[in-house]
């Protein structure tokens, strides 16, 4: 009985030691900026969904997965939004979600982290790495991609290649989820 109790306590302690806090998104914004004809075009994506398992003390064990609805692209101009949904750009009929999934999170100190992620956009998955902050349940970060790496649009003299993406997620903790060893 004594050995069984010690074994059980060891297993429970192992689960507690690797537990990650699950964060439930309460509000989120995913925005982008690109140059077109020399002017900055700003837009957003709606339909945010996230699975956020994150412990600031053990970020290397974290799992951050977020996605947005590609069809919910919004630049404030309906005709432009419709154009961006077409096959040449986002191809929302074939690829309805844009997904970002962590592969490694590293602490930099003072609530700052560096994340290595896989970005899946229009059927292409590429690595992206960027700094982000986490403070009181709020994740803030951003990165730049080359739209051509994901087959979004063709070579263009008037449309910029670099797209700046900014992510802001406010979340609240939910009961801890234990990670199996």
At a glance:
With 181 residues, the protein is mainly β. It has helices spanning 2-17, 78-84; strands at 20-36, 39-53, 63-74, 97-109, 112-121, 124-135, 138-146, 162-177. The longest helix is centred in the N-terminal third of the chain and has 16 residues, at 2-17.
CATH class: Mainly Beta
What is the spatial order of strands in the main beta sheet? 1-2-3-4-5-6-7-8
CATH superfamily: Lipid/polyisoprenoid-binding, YceI-like
Number of domains: 1
SS elements, strand count:
8
From the 3D coordinates, which CATH architecture would you assign?
Answer: Beta Barrel
* Termini gap: 24 Å
Q: What's the multimeric state?
A: single chain
**Count of individual helical segments:** 2
Q: Would you tell me the overall average pLDDT?
A: 89
Task: Explain this structure.
- With 181 residues, the chain is mainly β.
- It has a single domain, classed as Lipocalin, CATH 2.40.128.110.
- The chain contains 2 helices and 8 strands.
- Strands 1-2-3-4-5-6-7-8 form an 8-stranded antiparallel barrel.
- A hairpin with a 2-residue loop joins β4 and β5.
- The chain starts with a helix and ends with a strand.
């Amino acid at each position: 009985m004594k050995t069984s109790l010690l074994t059980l306590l060891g297993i429970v302690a192992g689960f507690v030691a690797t537990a990650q806090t699950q964060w439930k998104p309460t509000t989120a914004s995913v925005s982008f900026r690109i140059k077109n004809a020399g002017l900055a075009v700003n837009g957003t994506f709606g339909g945010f969904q996230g699975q956020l398992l994150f412990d600031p003390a053990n970020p290397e064990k974290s799992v951050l997965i977020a996605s947005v609805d590609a069809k919910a692209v919004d630049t404030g101009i309906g005709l432009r939004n419709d154009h961006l949904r077409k096959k040449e750009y986002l191809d929302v009929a074939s690829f309805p979600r844009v997904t970002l999934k962590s592969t490694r999170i590293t602490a930099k100190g003072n609530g700052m982290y560096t994340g290595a992620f896989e970005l899946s956009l229009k059927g292409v998955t590429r690595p992206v790495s960027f700094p982000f902050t986490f403070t009181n349940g709020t994740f803030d970060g951003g990165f730049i991609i080359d739209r051509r790496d994901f087959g979004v649009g063709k070579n263009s003299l008037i449309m910029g290649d670099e797209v700046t993406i900014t992510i802001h997620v406010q979340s609240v903790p939910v009961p801890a989820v234990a990670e199996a060893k």
